[in-house]
Amino acid sequence: PSTAVRHMAARCVGVMSKIATVETIHIFLEKVLPWLGAIDDSTKQEGAIEALGAIMEQLDVGIIPYIVLLVVPVLGRMSDQTDSVRFMATQCFATLIRLMPLEAGIPDPPNMSEDLIKIKAKERHFLEQLLDGKKLENYKIPVPIKAELRKYQQEGVNWLAFLNKYKLHGILCDDMGLGKTLQSICILAGDHYLRAQEYARTKVADSIPLPSLVVCPPTLTGHWVDEVGKFCSKEFLNPLHYTGPPTERARLQQHVKRHNLIVASYDVVRNDIDFFRNIKFNYCILDEGHVIKNGKTKLSKAIKQLAANYRIILSGTPIQNNVLELWSLFDFLMPGFLGTERQFAARYGKPILASRDARSSSREQEAGVLAMEALHRQVLPFLLRRMKEDVLQDLPPKIIQDYYCILSSLQVQLYEDFAKSRAKCDVDETVSAASLTEETEKPKLKATGHVFQVGNASAYFAT
């Protein structure tokens, strides 16, 4: 019954906002919106966020003059422990962010109080930073890091710190080799230190020190542990390499509280999800996070059970095949932000895929462009991507070292057989005739693939 009453009350507030917009919004901002911060009373939170959703539904673009006043309170609930509050807050934020670019040109509504105008001017700084990464504040890492950050790496840390400040989540998708691991270590160490300092000073429950979790492919777990030790003292980040057979992992579970960072592989987290889902993490970082692109796999479902204040995906290739993969990534970061999977496919996936068909009509192509632009507006504030060519001036000169190796007798025999084969001729012809156009990439790949299909190789190994 209380749910039905709350729902009807929210609808009434929505209708009132349509009839008497300024008066209703003023009362809502003053009396109801603060309920979103009542973390000990989910009933108040649900009432406030549902009322906001009803207002936004009724006003549509009429909500634009008030966006600045709503965004930050809604953001704070996108990481709420109550599923219903978190989901509704994420949906509200998804609508607000689509309208944000229009806010700058809209005048303040008549009769807006001076207090609200001052708050609006203050909060607009957040919008500017969200929509323009160049306006981010410089983040001074509060702990010693044994590395000198390059300019673009400092900008990456600034972006991660901005997400942290407003309890947001995102995808760092720099090219391979640009230091995604180092940037992540910087924000991990800095936030763990500041959180511990805040708790020592205030004893507030929201700042209780929590461990963080890095999930990565098994080949990278040792690398992560080594990199943390290389760049940061154990005083600030003390990693636990959570690996081994089940008996060893059961033993390691007894030592988790001694560490503030756990590094584990995807398969290990999936197998031990009953253990991991009962831990509240500060950060959950998915390295090579595109592995959860298919939301229907057991791995993706397990990873999405993890609870964390901040969720970050690291990937040089966040979208590998089609735009539909993006939904699963954001379903981990901010569930509900892109709607349900079916809604996302209808709103973005189908128009974009249809427009890429060679037989698509001009109308389908236009619909695809509009869908892509709308998707960009919604997700780009939560993606940071730098290509190597974008930061060449910050990179050191390339070091090339040639090492000459003596072939074994088997390798010599394989090489000579390949040199005499038709495959060798195919490779030579394709490479000599190839240009750098996209059309020639597939034949070149096919030709070079012959190298790995050396005929009769199994016979050599058998003997």
UniProtKB/TrEMBL annotation:
InterPro entries: ARM-like, ARM-type_fold, Helicase_ATP-bd, Mot1, Mot1_ATP-bd, P-loop_NTPase, SNF2-like_sf, SNF2_N. It comes from the Eukaryota. It holds the Pfam family SNF2-rel_dom. GO terms for molecular function: ATP binding; ATP hydrolysis activity; DNA binding; TBP-class protein binding. Residues 161-336 form the Helicase ATP-binding domain. SMART domains: DEXDc (SM00487). PANTHER family: TATA-BINDING PROTEIN-ASSOCIATED FACTOR 172 (PTHR36498:SF1). This is Helicase ATP-binding domain-containing protein.
